[in-house]
Amino acid sequence: MIGLRSAVFNIAFFGWFFLVAGLLLPVTLLPRAAAWWVVEFWAHSSLFLMRVICGMRLEVRGRENLPTSGGYILAAKHQSAFETLALLTIARRPAYILKRELLFLPLFGYYLWRFGQIAVKRGAGQKAIHSVGKAALPVLAAGRPIIIFPQGTRTDPGTHRPYRGGVQHLARLSGVPVVPVALNSGVFWGRNAFHKYPGTVVIEILPPLTVPAEPRAAFMAALEGAIEPATARLEAAGWASRKPA
Q1: Is the torsion defined by CA of 182, 166, 116, 111 positive or negative?
Q2: Which residues pair with 96 in a beta bridge?
Q3: 178-183 and 73-76: which strand pairing?
Q4: pTM above 0.85, yes or no
Q5: Distance between CA 85 and CA 41 in Å, rounded?
Q6: From CA 167, how far away is CA 150, in angstroms rounded?
Q7: Tell me: the pLDDT tens digits for 141-151?
Q8: d(CA 219, CA 163)
Q9: How far is Cα 167 from Cα 177, in angstroms, rounded to an integer?
Q10: How many angstroms separate the CA atoms of 200 and 109, rounded?
């Protein structure tokens, strides 16, 4: 049954994207601020499809930890494609830092470009960090949040991947707070996994961090120390509650 529901969701998800993105393409010719509702509509409706077809629900904790004004950096754990959708419904008109290859996907890449997402070339090292800073500063100055996955890619539950220093560089450059985010989405929708399991995905927004004057290592340890224990706690609860196949 899990396999059948997952297959139905995949068909519905991709079909719905191309239907919405195609029919509402003329709306993207409006100023970006006036057209953002297209992105929000797609994200909310896709989560609705996931809830109805797969039985995956979203619970958001700690919304009070989001800054109420000005730009900020949302530094999130990344386990699944789920949070790339869900965070669009939590942060207001965010800009993701994402791999440049996504810009070349049909139609989807156009929307990424049109709505001001920040593409980075993997493997470019220090050059990539500087280019991200240059692109991100105007976004933050405009009061929009930046979403970054500090481990750089999706990480399976229970596994460790080092945190990269780009988030610290950007925070020092901009002076905005960093909001850590823990989650357990990988319990229900694994990395590159076909099956989507029923249950409640929890995204927990943790208290903001400010970048101190100490060396990068101190801040990165604080960020990892905030996200990893909270993620482990959410994963344990997720495994205990995940409905069987």
Answers
A1: negative
A2: 147
A3: parallel
A4: yes
A5: 11
A6: 6
A7: 999 999 999 99
A8: 11
A9: 11
A10: 30
